[in-house]
Amino acid sequence: MKNLEIINATLHKNIRVKNSYAQDLGHGMGSIMVLPSEILEVQREYPILFRKHPETGQFLPVALLGFEEQENLFLSENTQWNASYIPLAISKGPFWVGVNGEGADEHLVICINRDDPRVNQEVGEPLFDENGSPSIYTQTIRLNLFRLNEGIAETKKMIGAFVAANLIETVNMEVEFANKEAINFKGAYTINTENLTQLSAEQITALNTEGYLALAYFIAGSLGNVRKLIALKNKKLAAQ
Fold this sequence. Notes:
Layout: E1 4-6, E2 16-17, E3 31-33, H1 39-42, E4 48-52, E5 59-64, H2 88-91, E6 95-100, E7 107-113, E8 119-120, E9 125-126, H3 136-164, E10 168-176, E11 182-191, H4 193-197, H5 201-210, H6 212-221, H7 226-239
Antiparallel strand pairs: 1-7, 2-8, 2-9, 3-5, 4-5, 6-7, 10-11
């Protein structure tokens, strides 16, 4: 349960947020949603797969962070994120987009979860400066949250285009680690590269016009980053 409050200079003038990605703060997760607008950056670091939402059955693009449900191999022992790009859904911190007002006065607002352990009054990034204006940190969070909010509709549109072109297929990966432990990674989907190369001229034009053709190739190519995940897993196993 989240204790959300709309941020304002009076109520939160002394609030700070610890910039931490520790697993006990909820970052021990095996995957994280990514937006179409960040796929170019994400595919350089992470494997990108599709998962089905457990309730709606809709496909969602996710960056794979580990081989188990709560395994984030990009977190070091000192809780540093070992990648040059952190997906927006992670970097937004304990903040959420809310809606305030009614009718014509309805507008989006930024909320903070006061029960999140990163929220305190001693250490971390301040929400407001000494003049009561939003800090650079808060302004960055605001931009990230609005990008996430706007990206949801674009994600649905991209997925719809991929499904219509029959580009999404099940992927099963059998992975063996240095200690001879093996897993069969199931329940994920990827781009069908054979169907991708056999698209009609009309389909290619439609996908390219929307900017989705390049994203399909990025997603397909990102599976090469599974080797990076295996190396991180082997390093973790060797340290145990």
